[in-house]
Amino acid sequence: MILRLEMPPELVLRSQEMKQADAASIAAGIPGIELMRRAGGAVAKAAAEMLTKEAKVVVAAGPGQNGGDGFVVATLLVRQGHRVSLGLLGNVERLSGDAALAAKDWKGPVEAAEDLPFPEADLIVDALFGTGIARDLYGSARAAVERMNASGRPILAVDLPSGIDGDTGRVRGVAVRAMRTVTFAARKPCHLLMPGRAFSGDVEVADIGITSKTLAASGGKLFANAPSLWLDKLPRPELSSHKYDRGHTLVVSGGATRTGAARLAARAALRIGSGLVTVASPPEALGVNAAQLTAVMLRGCDGPEGLHHILQDVRLNALVLGPALGVHSGTRAMVAVAAHARRSLVLDADALTSFEDLASELHQAFHYAPTVLTPHDGEFKRLFNGHPDILDPESKIERAHRAAVYTGAVVVLKGPDTVIASPDGRAAINENGTPYLGTAGTGDTLCGIIAGLMAQGMPPFEAASAGVWIHAEAGASFGPGLIAEDLAELVPGVLRKLLN
Ligand SMILES: NC(=O)C1=CN([C@@H]2O[C@H](COP(=O)(O)OP(=O)(O)OC[C@H]3O[C@@H](n4cnc5c(N)ncnc54)[C@H](OP(=O)(O)O)[C@@H]3O)[C@@H](O)[C@H]2O)[C@H](O)CC1
Ligand SMILES: [K+]
Questions:
Q1: Which of 176, 112, 110, 113 lies closest to 148, judged by CA?
Q2: What is the reported pLDDT for 11?
Q3: Whose CA is nearest to atom 25 of ligand 1?
Q4: From 3.40.1190.20, 3.20.20.140, 3.90.226.10, 3.10.20.880, which CATH number describes the 227-499 domain?
Q5: What residue spans define the domains of the chain?
Q6: How confident is the model at residue 222 (pLDDT cuts 50, 70, 90)?
Q7: Which ligand 1 atom lies nearest to the CA of residue 183?
Q8: How far is CA 289 from CA 41, 192, 305, 487, in A?
Q9: Ligand positioned closest to the Cα atom of 142
Q10: Which-ligand-closest: CA of 38?
Q11: Is 62 in the pocket of ligand 1 (CB under 6 A)?
Q12: Residue 2: what pLDDT?
């Protein structure tokens, strides 16, 4: 992993934002047809890398500008000596704008997409649909995609695989399974969100002359989660700093038979650099915890009143609440005490599901307590049951964003494509997840990492984004056989790569 500090965060643009960037570039003097020629040129270059001379390329073009790109690709590949057949969904007279201009450059026959010989192709170029897909594919559009996939031949997708929704990554009925995708100027959410990420294959971003300034003016709040987004805010211990400078994380433990989650979170908080870590344990679990803790300290904590008493110590500046606390009013009362204590909070598991059907109690509840919620899909659905305005959006980014605005907390909506959303509109999509993290207790470890970063002063959005990335990187560095107990011990290796 080569980390260059000067690398700016990678912007991800939604379809509408991309259209604005297009228009701004055209207004700044780059004709649309020139953008299309550059886009097609980038695809043709990628295709040529995948082909031997004389190879047979089959280009499937659609009725819009994505199809226009396809005409450009076909024209260029013929000039490079390849055998190219092009089929169009719809008829060429109905093409408009730049696509019509691109079609004029194509000197070969325009076949019907339905008749294209996909099985004979050395390479199929998918230029049916891009960001303009407006509904589920049906009829001849659906048939073309199904025949492309059935051919078993390698497919190079233009901008994004046809049938994938650019903003949500969802399959609109059926979608092309591409080996490779060439997109333009910036990646779209579908290249990072599942299943769009899987359908896109290897994604290459081609520079077609749209400046980063134009992109930032058109988008600017959606990012790929990577060190470039938060490395500048990652705590770096100074020689002079001592443990009290690096915060004090408090993890509230469950009852005598449910204490492991708190210890996993506590160990992770220590490993990520929290100066001190304490487990607040119910009296009946003190013995169990004491027998298994060393550098992590231990205090008795009897319910919400006990927590209120402990929090008189203002040095306790970050809390983890939730894992194994139980789904009941006592847990809700603990959350209320923590929120009023104005410390950094990470709420997970039972601290979330205790508010099932009571999400209104979390409405704007965290103004004074920098808070991160870390639900997986199931917990999210239970927590916001009865809030269709939050649950309904098809976009995972939109759901997480609305939950963040509603609660006032940063929301980490976990999955293979975890989305981190802030109430201020920023969001990041994580893509270094590994299936090996799907084992008991890894969520507890993530809570500890995020809380430990906030204990050291990292703001909640950056702490959550960095925590998700570091957590996944640690899991991926271990691979098969990973169990939650391994994760915290793998954090130092990831920190070394980040901080050296
Ligand atoms: N800077 C850039 O990113 C550039 C992008 N380019 C390419 O432009 C496309 C976006 O082009 P657009 O025309 O907006 O959209 P599409 O080509 O993806 O498709 C729209 C047409 O498809 C029809 N449509 C939509 N859904 C369906 C469906 N389910 N079944 C059948 N037909 C469908 C739609 O017709 P309507 O009936 O909905 O009006 C449109 O005709 C982008 O992806 C890039 O590839 C530029 O070329 C270069 C710069
Ligand atoms: K496409």
A1: 176
A2: 97
A3: 133
A4: 3.40.1190.20
A5: 15-219, 227-499
A6: very high
A7: 3
A8: 63, 41, 20, 20
A9: 1
A10: 1
A11: yes
A12: 53
Distance 162 CA to ligand 1 centre (A): 10
Centre of ligand 2 from the C-alpha of residue 433, in Å? 26
Residue 352 in contact with ligand 1 by CB distance below 6 A: no
Cβ–Cβ under 8 Å, residues 422 and 375: no
State residue 292 phi and psi, 5-degree precision: -125, 10
Residues 6+ apart with CB under 8 A from 240: none
Q: Which atom of ligand 1 is nearest to the CA of 159?
A: 45
Q: How confident is the model at residue 87 (pLDDT cuts 50, 70, 90)?
A: very high
- In the prediction, which pLDDT does 368 show? 85
CA distance 111 to 129: 17
Distance CA 394, CA 392 (A): 6
One-letter amino acid for residue 246 of the chain? R
pTM to 2 decimal places: 0.96
Residue closest by Cα to atom 48 of ligand 1: 36
Q: Let me know: does 401 contact 168? Beta carbons within 8 Å.
A: no
What does the pLDDT read at residue 7?
A: 82
Summarize pLDDT for 268-322 with one digit per residue, the tens.
Answer: 999 999 999 999 999 999 999 999 999 999 999 999 999 999 999 999 999 999 9
Q: What is the CATH number of domain 15-219?
A: 3.40.50.10260
Q: Whose CA is nearest to atom 28 of ligand 1?
A: 137
Q: Does residue 443 have a known ligand-binding role? A: yes
